[in-house]
From TrEMBL:
Organismal lineage: Eukaryota, Fungi, Dikarya, Basidiomycota, Agaricomycotina
Compositionally skewed regions (Pro residues) per UniProt: 66-79, 114-124
Protein name, entry field: Uncharacterized protein
Extent of Basic residues compositional bias: 91-102
Region of interest (Disordered), residue spans: 44-126
Length: 143
């Protein structure tokens, strides 16, 4: 069984390597295409409305209307005291142990000790069972 698992792992690793190489190649192709599209858009933006090409064209600066007056300057930062900074490490003190409170016994039947439920039986490994089935949770009753 170990030999089959080893062979399967090697084959799977080879497939993963091939797929990762393809993904890397596709990523590089996408980057190259995006670069080419950006270059084409740049050239297209330099053409005027009549179709003539302007080499040194740059977008004009248009003043934007101001809707609200400029906000006042932010307040200056508060001055930090020149003393030493407070340490980040803190001491955690251990809590004192608590003593249980004595309960008042009322008349009547004495309380019975709590009985823990019986633990589930441990799953018995079967030799004919596939590997994934051994990890399944053992159910107390069949589904």
């Amino acid at each position: 069984p170990d030999r089959y698992l080893n062979d399967f792992s090697k084959a799977l690793a080879g497939e993963v390597r091939i797929l990762l190489a393809e993904v890397g190649k596709l990523r590089d192709e996408r980057r190259q295409l995006q670069y080419e599209i950006a270059e084409l858009m740049s050239v297209k933006s330099k053409h005027g409305s009549g179709g003539e090409y302007n080499e040194g064209w740059e977008p004009g600066v248009h003043p934007q209307p101001q809707l609200a007056p400029p906000s006042p300057a932010p307040p200056p930062p508060e001055e930090v005291p020149a003393g030493p900074a407070r340490p980040a490490w803190r001491v955690v003190h251990k809590r004192p142990e608590r003593k249980p409170k004595p309960r008042a016994i009322t008349g009547g039947a004495s309380p019975s000790p709590a009985v823990a439920p019986a633990p589930l039986p441990a799953p018995v490994p079967h030799k004919d069972m596939p590997a994934w089935a051994q990890w399944r949770r053992a159910l107390p009753f069949p589904p």
